[in-house]
Write a structure and sequence with these properties.
The complex is a heterodimer of chains A (about 500) and B (about 180).
Chain A lengths: L8 E4 L3 H13 L3 E6 L7 H5 L2 E4 L12 H10 L4 E3 L9 H9 L3 E2 L4 H8 L1 H10 L15 H11 L3 E9 L2 E6 L5 H16 L4 E5 L4 E10 L5 E13 L2 E7 L6 H17 L4 E10 L5 E7 L6 H8 L3 H9 L16 E8 L11 E2 L3 E2 L6 E5 L6 E2 L6 E9 L2 H14 L1 E2 L6 H8 L2 H4 L7 H5 L4 H4 L5 H17 L11 H12 L1
Parallel strand pairs in A: 1-2, 1-4, 2-3, 4-5
Antiparallel strand pairs in A: 6-7, 6-8, 9-10, 9-12, 10-11, 11-14, 12-13, 14-19, 15-18, 16-20, 17-19
Helix pairs in contact in A: 4-5, 12-13
Chain B lengths: L1 E6 L2 E9 L3 E8 L5 E6 L3 E4 L2 E6 L2 E10 L2 E6 L2 E8 L1 H10 L9 E3 L4 E6 L6 E2 L4 E7 L2 E6 L4 E6 L6 E2 L4 E5 L7
Antiparallel strand pairs in B: 1-2, 1-9, 2-3, 3-4, 5-6, 6-7, 7-8, 8-9, 10-17, 11-13, 11-16, 12-15, 13-14, 15-17
The chains are: A alpha+beta (about 500), B mainly beta (about 180).
């Protein structure tokens, strides 16, 4: 406990597991935690675990968790010193950051200028080039003629990708692997752009054929210090959303790791970054080259794997930095030890990835050595339809990558969650996949290499087990119902009805 | 207690007998012989919100959710859907759905039974939720009501008839609109 911290009360402008994570940090620091909740979240665990809780409006996020005026109002009423936005919702909203400042409340996060600098992709890329951070080489604008396009492509080297500026959904995109293919691809892209999006403008970028998503955790303070806390690999994605993350990445050699970390620190220093942030890179697994994609100016969902491998409590550090303290570590103090994996448990169909909200019946979280569960699930809790389907994160640590993976398999086997569909079985299938085991997976892994088929899900369970369990339960259900209560029609009633019908 | 079940497109007959210390469950996959399982009650125990089921040397934590005839068995991080039913459960089902399948162009028998009484004749206009006929099944009288305003076109059965499941009992005028 830290007596000198200027914060006595912190409002947590978020819900679910991350609100609980922040409540825990507050409690360990002797700070009162103030939760907020929408009408749909009265029964959410983050409300139960906080010191105080305020209703902030109807279920839709727009009217509650994104309603910054209401949140500021509650913050004033509750007399808080600071607000932690968590991730998502208002965490990267400059209007909110400014509104906090205007109300005399500390926003636990980067400055408004930090968020603005990284919010616009084009200006961010320009800033990164200035800081000598590698960006995906390309035309940096529209390309009008074949000659211009070929000269750019030859300069950056094949393979390249031509994209229609207005394109999307796979239309108006062509990968070109050699100069001779360029002309026809260029024409096709322009005409697709014209036909589908009424805009023939195209641009050219280096094509990364084995792309991995690798990001560096950075931390800055108000005294000009910036450190990095190494990388996380987040290439296992479905619908462009991460579901498994690991640190360190199995694909980054030590020398490249050093260069990535240095580049990330340069990037953060370029904008005088304050607080926790993440520089996302696209990493070419063939050439081991990395290129800046974007910066997330907030705490990340997957921050626990960095905590597990660096022994830094990132949420507490955010609070210290917001209170004006210098970083509690120096770059040379930081080492990555062991290996950590996180699996995001979502209320969704493991085959179609469709969200599956509903009432949780049984819920038994895994326990045991070298692991952590950040969850807001409990028996009887109804997962609301309004918000993200992620209900829990399981994080395991191991001396080696293999041990961390085996431990995750073990933990997920222990996880009992019934009543709703979850993606636990998808995680288990991924963890056993040879491309995951050898670390060669890319961001296309789930799309390309993966199909969960129903019979795989129960390869070790025989059909009679299901039938017997269902039959005994059906028997017990029947026994407890008295059949005779059902709609027995007496002769008198029948007569009365007959008479009524005659009229 | 006798059930029929469907699991992964396959049909089964199941018989469950409760004894003092055990369950006797017999399974017959369609086209195969009956198999008998003796399940000690100490091997099938409710624990917290789920069932601990020790079966053929394996330990399963199982949760079974039954809604009408649709059962879902959760085990080992996933689940399977099973349709399980007997005559009585089908009757419950049809009662819940408004006393017969009278939403369409005709009223059909949800299950085999005997016609006890008929309250309507061709040409009658019957308001919503009025009795059409009474059918006995499993020694229970099941009153079938109109689920909307209907005009009777034809009564296909008479008092005392025995009918099979799915048999048409009453036909409604298809083009009839509310008066």
């Amino acid at each position: 406990m830290s007596a000198e911290l200027p914060f006595k009360r912190i409002l947590i402008a978020n819900r679910g597991e991350i609100a609980i994570r922040i409540t825990r940090a507050c409690r360990e620091l002797g700070i009162s935690s103030i939760a907020v909740f929408s009408d749909a979240d009265r029964d959410s665990l983050h409300v139960f675990l906080a010191d105080q809780a305020y209703n902030i409006g109807p279920a839709p996020s727009k009217e509650s968790y994104l309603n910054y005026k209401k949140i500021i109002e509650v913050a004033k009423e509750a007399q808080v010193d600071a607000i932690h936005p968590g991730y998502g919702f208002l965490s990267e909203n400059t209007t909110f950051a400014q509104a906090c400042k205007d109300a005399g409340i500390v926003f636990i996060g980067p400055t408004k200028e930090n968020i603005e600098a990284m919010g616009d992709k084009l200006s961010a890329k320009a800033l990164m080039k200035k800081a000598n951070v590698p960006c995906v080489p390309g035309s940096d604008g529209g390309v009008e003629t074949i000659e211009e396009g070929r000269s750019i492509s030859n300069k950056i080297g094949y393979p390249i990708i031509i994209k229609a500026t207005a394109g999307g959904g796979g239309k108006g995109m062509r990968v070109v692997r050699q100069d001779s293919e360029f002309e026809s691809a260029f024409r096709a892209c322009r005409s697709e752009g014209q036909n589908y999006f009424a805009n023939p403008t195209v641009y050219i970028e280096k094509f990364v054929s084995d792309p991995k998503h690798i990001e560096i955790q950075v931390f800055g303070d108000t005294h000009g210090n910036v450190c990095h806390l190494f990388e996380r690999e987040c290439s296992v994605q479905r619908r462009h959303q991460k579901i498994i993350e690991e640190a360190p990445s199995p694909s980054v050699p030590p020398e490249v790791r050093k260069r990535m970390g240095d580049a990330a620190v340069r990037a953060a220093k370029q904008i005088n970054y304050v607080g926790a942030g993440t520089i996302e890179f696209i990493f070419d697994n063939q050439t081991k080259e990395f290129y800046f994609m974007e910066m997330n100016t907030r705490l990340q969902v997957e921050h626990p794997i960095t905590e597990a491998t660096t022994n830094v409590d990132l949420v507490k550090e955010q609070i210290y930095v917001a209170a004006g303290r210098p970083l509690s570590f120096k770059q040379e103090d930081l080492v990555q030890h062991g290996h950590a994996i996180e699996a995001r448990i979502c209320a969704e169909d493991p085959i179609t990835y469709k969200p599956s909200p509903g009432v949780i019946r049984a819920c038994r979280h895994p326990q045991g050595p070298f692991m952590r569960v950040d969850s807001y699930a409990y028996p009887g809790y109804e997962v609301p339809i309004y918000y993200d389907p992620m209900i829990a994160k399981v994080i395991t640590w191991g001396e080696t990558r293999e041990e961390a993976i085996d431990r995750m398999q073990r933990a997920l086997t222990e996880f009992v969650l019934t009543g709703i569909k979850t993606n636990i079985v998808l995680h288990k299938t991924i963890l056993d996949h040879p491309k995951f085991r050898d670390g060669s997976y890319t961001t296309q892994f789930i799309e390309k290499n993966f199909e969960v088929i129903e019979p795989q899900l129960f390869k070790q369970v025989e059909d009679p087990m299901f039938l017997i369990a269902a039959a005994i339960t059906a028997y017990n259900d029947r026994k407890s119902k008295d059949v005779r209560q059902l709609n027995l029609v007496s002769n008198w009633k029948r007569l009365g009805r007959k008479i009524a019908l005659r009229t | 207690m006798y059930f029929e079940a469907e699991l992964r497109g396959r049909k089964y007959k199941i018989d469950v007998t409760e004894h003092r210390h055990s369950w006797k469950v017999s399974l017959q996959p369609e086209g195969q012989d009956w198999k008998n399982y003796e399940i000690s009650k100490t091997d099938f125990k409710q624990a917290e919100e789920y069932i601990s089921f020790l079966f053929k040397g394996q330990s399963y934590l199982v949760d079974v959710i039954g809604k009408d005839t649709e059962y879902t068995v959760f085990v080992r991080n996933s689940y399977r859907a099973i349709r399980i039913y007997n005559d009585e459960m089908l009757l419950h089902d049809s009662l819940k759905k408004g006393g017969g399948l009278s939403g369409g162009a005709d009223l059909r028998a949800g299950m085999p039974g005997k016609i006890i009484e008929i309250f309507v004749k061709p040409g009658d206009i019957i308001p919503e939720n009025k009795p059409l006929l009474i059918m006995e099944a499993m020694k229970m009288e099941n009153e079938m009501r109109s689920t909307r305003e209907v005009k009777i076109k034809e009564v296909c059965v008479k008092q005392g008839d025995s009918v099979e499941a799915g048999a048409i009992l009453i036909k409604f005028e298809e083009n009839y609109t509310l008066s």
